[in-house]
Design brief:
about 600 residues, alpha+beta, BirA Bifunctional Protein, domain 2, Threonyl-tRNA Synthetase, Chain A, domain 2, 3 domains, 9-stranded mixed beta sheet, 4-stranded antiparallel beta sheet, 21 strands, about 40% helix, binds serine
């Protein structure tokens, strides 16, 4: 069984059962500032799980590129991966628990031929989640039993194990998880799929999304009940092919061989280094190879990418790899994946160029930085602790990700004052965040008069849209230059010409009324109580500015704004187009 066969078996199985196959979305989420990367197959589908109609129908399946960064430091063992593929099938208000479970059971046992005795499952026992009590899931265990799973292999757990929600606000619900029993001895009398001892490997998660979780944690029932499932491709491939580790599957073997060809080192003697290099460069190739690619940098996605590349580079250097080995390895991944992900081939030149550039930039810094690090370390007593300022210097001046410095010092029996480092880092981060937030808040290109006037116009526009289209309309993004404003907002369909005209009229009415724009400073809580709209949720610090425009609008916002709406001129909407699924974009000017 190859990865491509597994992808096809899965997608064909669900297609034959009425599911439309949709392509993988970008690894870089759209219109979602709350996460850096797409972390699950459901991520790009959130608007549909919240009730919007999907153009391909209400049964979907796909194979989604995902990236999770919480466990980067765990990579190197047999199973942790940063990039991975998630196979998924969705019901948007169509089937629910019984059919979802039955489909999973059939696919695993009939298509993949996994013996039913090897499968154990978990279900939701009920209980508190945030402020709400959620009832026990009675149906799922009953369905599993009716399919022939004995009670001893149906485990029930609480919210920690069997209730799935996203990091921030979004759809959520109880789940039933499917585990493969490796046949290892139970670790104790209490051994279960929840104990992580390695006996049970989770392969599939079926989430029954029937609630919406708001940013403040409150749950409300969704109008439509959905199913979101996720099956880890690499993991299942590993199990089906009887390999000890995902790195021994055909997805990685050619790359491990390439590393040997480049360095002369053997995988069996350098497992950890080989796995880190392979995992990190695969993730880097997919980030750089995405049509919405980002570049290595010191913030957000760019920093994660840089960390991945630099760590891989360091391990390659330790194995005495020749210059540009990273490029050779990335090309191998492109070859490996281009059939399933043609964007990799399309963007191959970009991938190679960026890796080369990052390697060149880092090679010098690494040389100098290593000398500096040697100096710092030489001054330490045996078993000493590297001062935070020095670790920060290596980070800030020489581009050493701190994890890198930690590894380096640990190899010599030293450690790093991480607490101090984190404090320095937080300070530094707060400063650059402030800068970024300032930029992000209004999406302003500058704070010149023309831009400022257009910024005030976006507040009037947001208010007008809420009047015309409904109160749930919120800003999803905005970008303002001295020439025009661009405003993204959540709305499911194209606006009619009448709606556009009415929106324009309302904005011009507010301009004609010559309303003063007033600003007050208060807390987020007070602002919300007063009815202010906060477009970017939790991003704000404790105290915020609230801009009010008479009865028309009150928004939490960093400013700056015009002093009076009469300064604005005539407001004209130039365009109303789709920005992405469920998000519309208006371009407008002031004449
Ligand atoms: N959203 C669930 C998960 O990530 C199932 O797809 O596990």
């Amino acid at each position: 069984m190859t990865a491509q066969e597994l992808r096809r078996l899965y997608l064909d199985f669900f297609a034959a059962r009425g599911h439309a196959e949709i392509p993988s979305a970008s690894l870089i989420p759209e219109n979602d500032p709350s996460v850096l990367f797409t972390t699950a197959g459901m991520h790009p589908l959130v608007p549909y799980l919240l009730g919007e109609g999907h153009p391909a129908g209400n049964r979907l399946c796909d194979c989604q590129k995902c990236l999770r960064t919480d466990d980067i430091d765990e990579v190197g063992d047999a199973s942790h991966l940063t990039f991975f593929e998630m196979l998924g099938n969705w019901s948007l208000g169509d089937y629910f628990k019984r059919e979802s479970i039955t489909l999973s059971h059939e696919f695993l046992t009939k298509v993949l031929g996994i013996p039913q005795e090897k499968i154990s499952v978990t279900v939701f026992v009920g209980g508190g989640r945030d402020d709400a009590m959620i009832p026990r899931d009675e149906e799922s265990p009953a369905v599993w039993e009716s399919l022939g799973y004995p009670k001893e292999r149906i485990f029930a757990f609480g919210r920690k194990e069997n209730f799935w929600s996203m990091a921030g606000a979004g759809p959520c619900g109880p789940d039933t998880e499917i585990f493969y029993d490796t046949g290892k001895e139970p670790c104790s009398a209490a051994c279960s799929p929840a104990c992580n001892c390695g006996k049970y490997v989770e392969i599939w998660n079926n989430v029954f999304m029937e609630y919406y979780r708001a940013a403040d944690g409150t749950l409300s029932p969704l109008e439509r009940k959905n199913v979101d499932t996720g099956l880890g491709l690499e993991r299942v491939l590993c199990l089906l092919t009887g390999k000890q580790s995902v790195f021994e599957t055909e997805l990685f073997v050619p790359v491990l061989e390439e590393i040997t060809a480049l360095t002369g080192a053997q995988y069996t003697e350098n497992e950890r280094a080989f796995r880190i290099i392979a995992d990190h460069l695969r993730a880097a190739a997919f980030i750089l190879g995405d049509d919405k690619a980002v570049q290595p940098s010191n913030v957000d996605q760019g920093y994660i990418l840089r960390r991945l590349i630099r760590r891989a580079y360091r391990y390659l250097s330790d194995l005495n790899a020749p210059p540009l080995a990273m490029v050779t390895i990335a090309r191998k991944f492109v070859e490996q994946y281009e059939a399933a992900y043609p964007e990799l081939a399309r963007n191959e030149a970009f991938i190679c160029e960026k890796l080369e550039r990052e390697e060149k930039a880092f090679r010098k810094a690494l040389e100098h930085g290593l000398k500096k690090a040697e100096k710092f370390l030489a001054a330490l007593p045996e078993g000493g602790i590297l001062p935070a300022e020095q670790a920060f210097k290596l980070y800030d001046t020489f581009g050493f990700p701190v994890e890198f410095t930690q590894e380096l010092t640990a190899e010599r029996g030293f450690s790093v004052d991480m607490e101090g480092f984190h404090a320095l880092f937080a300070e530094h981060r707060a400063k650059s965040r402030e800068g970024a937030a300032q930029k992000f808040k209004g999406g302003l290109a500058d704070s010149g008069e023309a831009t400022t006037r257009l910024h005030t116009a976006t507040h009037l526009l947001g208010a007008a849209l809420r009047k015309v289209l409904g109160d749930e309309v919120r800003q999803r993004g905005s970008n303002i230059t001295p020439e025009r404003l661009r405003f993204d907002f959540n709305f499911a369909r194209k606006m009619t010409p009448e709606e556009v005209a009415e929106t324009e009229r309302l904005v011009n009415e507010a301009i004609a009324a010559a309303i003063p724009v007033v600003c007050a400073e208060t807390t987020v809580e007070e602002a919300r109580k007063a009815g202010a709209i906060g477009v970017f949720g939790n991003r704000y610090g404790e105290r915020v500015k609230v801009y009010g425009i008479g009865e028309v609008s009150m928004e939490i916002c960093g400013g700056p704004h015009a002093a009076n709406t009469s300064e604005l001129g005539r407001f004209v909407i130039k365009q109303e187009i789709s920005s992405s699924a469920g998000v519309r974009r208006i371009k407008a000017v002031l004449e």
